[in-house]
Design brief:
This is Thioredoxin. The chain is α/β, with parallel strands linked by helices and 124 residues long. It is built from five helices and five strands, in the order E-H-E-H-E-H-E-E-H-H. The longest helix has 16 residues.
Length: 124
């Protein structure tokens, strides 16, 4: 499966669905983004059960602002609608493979429990 261009009107529906979603925030003028693009595309073809989405930060300034993107590329990973990873910087293929496996191996019951605890402990 090829990567999917994510837009303001499709982003929430895709990342909030069940399953794993990798999101690459990028821009055409960004050298590291261009270097990471074929790695990301190749992973999308090797893992058809995972959604690999791309957000062009120039075209989707609202999304970039909403997620406080200050450095690109920034990679985010959502699983079952929960943000489980966010970090700027291009990854080499072995690092991306390790991150994919880590996302697959997550104990989502534990993750949901941690999210609930964090939410309960936040001041009102």
């Amino acid at each position: 499966m090829a990567t999917t261009d994510l837009k303001q009107d499709t982003f929430a529906e895709i990342v909030n669905a069940e399953g794993i979603v990798f999101v690459d925030f990028w821009a055409a003028w960004c050298g590291p983004c261009r270097a990471f693009a074929p790695i990301f595309e190749s992973a999308s073809e090797q893992h058809p059960d995972i959604v690999f989405g791309k957000v062009d930060t120039e075209a989707e300034r609202g999304l970039a602002s909403e997620f406080r993107i200050t450095s690109i590329p920034t990679l985010m990973v959502f699983r079952d609608g929960i943000l489980v990873y966010a970090q700027p910087g291009a990854l080499a293929r072995p690092q991306l493979d390790q991150l994919i496996q880590g996302a697959r191996d997550l104990d989502m019951d534990d993750v949901r429990m941690q999210v609930a605890e964090r939410t309960a402990n936040q001041p009102s």
